[in-house]
Design brief:
The protein is of the alpha+beta class and 299 residues long. It contains eleven helices and eight strands. Among the domains are: 65 residues, Alpha-Beta Plaits (2-Layer Sandwich); 127 residues, NADH Oxidase, CATH 3.40.109. It binds flavin mononucleotide (FMN). The site of flavin mononucleotide (FMN) has 8 residues, from strand 7 and helix 10.
């Protein structure tokens, strides 16, 4: 596919209502795509076809002089004067969010799931592509099927990594470090398998919901877009009394097993970029955890 075609999106450019415009130029300054330029002291839409639909021009306009078809510029409750929360509250929210690996069997109501997914919509995406797609599994049978397929994938991978030929093949396709990591992980996998045989779900931890985020493989922002979206979802889930655990094992399996990807109906030209289990925690964390200081080179 040509690059130009890949970038094409259905975006309605902004329109300037001249008699409302006060000529403050703020819309021109915030536009990342050179859509607007000043002429005769008013902004003019010069390159509408370059608009990425970010809505910044309409959001910044103090006189509601920018309209954009299909976009509703809601009034900010504090008119953009103050952030919605304090640094102290945000700090605690970030620090108290924990991976949850123990869930109650309670299903998550659909409207709660929708509220959680809604939080994902407001994360940043490269060129405002908003390209995050989700697969949401809520049926215990479907989750069990996915669990079995993922475990089967890893059983095959580890049995391959054990033999010299398989090791060589894997180090050629995935790199030496990956094979070393697989070898080091083998004992852990054996313990996990024993726990699974005893009925413990060491992959999804019996989460009643599994969410998978996927996006176009060609887009270098896809991984960031999906991860930020699911992180936003995880924060919203936390404030609603739910917990999540990101799942790198599932991401890897989906991207390396055509069978799993197809079963999830993820298009062939998409990549799974992030995934998590979700549910009501069956535990509490009465303490916060310590973390390393940032690794920074100040220059
Ligand atoms: C990209 C990513 C992949 C992860 N994959 C798994 C996983 O497959 N299984 C798991 O139990 N936890 C997984 N986790 C959770 C991490 O182990 C966890 O975030 C980390 O230990 C820090 O704990 P916290 O989330 O409570 O801060 C993953 C986290 C991230 C960010």
């Amino acid at each position: 596919m040509e690059e130009g075609k890949l970038m094409k999106r259905e975006v309605n450019p902004p329109r300037v209502i001249e008699n409302k415009c006060i000529g403050c130029e703020q819309c021109v300054a915030v536009c990342p795509s050179f859509v607007l330029e000043m002429a005769d002291e008013k902004p003019k839409v010069l390159r509408g076809e370059w608009c990425i639909g970010c809505g910044h021009c309409g959001a910044v306009c103090p006189s509601e002089a920018i309209l954009q078809t299909g976009m509703n510029f809601e009034i900010h409750p504090r008119k953009g004067e103050a952030p919605a929360t304090s640094p102290e509250v945000l700090d605690l929210l970030i620090r108290e969010r924990r991976s949850v690996r123990n869930y109650t069997a309670d299903p998550v109501p659909e409207q709660i799931l929708k509220k959680i997914l809604d939080a994902g919509r407001y994360g940043p995406t490269g060129t405002n592509s908003q390209n995050v797609h989700y697969v949401v599994l809520t049926s215990p049978d479907q989750i069990e099927k996915l669990r079995k397929m993922t475990i089967r994938f890893y059983e095959k991978l580890f049995s391959r990594a054990r033999g010299w030929f398989g090791s060589l093949f894997l180090s050629l396709v995935a790199g030496k470090k990956t094979v070393e990591y697989l070898h080091e992980s083998l004992p852990k996998m054996m313990v996990a398998r024993k726990a699974m045989n005893r009925g413990q779900d060491r992959l999804f931890y019996h989460a009643p919901v599994v969410i998978i985020a996927h996006a176009e493989s060609w887009d270098t922002s896809s991984s960031f877009n999906c991860s930020v979206a699911l992180y936003n979802c995880s924060l919203m889930a936390h404030t609603l009394g739910l917990g999540c655990c990101f799942n790198g094992f599932l991401v890897n399996a989906v991207n390396h097993s055509r069978k799993i990807k197809r079963w999830l109906s993820i298009p062939a030209d998409h990549r799974c970029c992030s995934a998590m289990g979700l549910g009501y925690p069956n535990m509490k964390y009465p303490r916060l955890v310590p973390r390393h200081l940032p690794k920074v080179k100040w220059r």
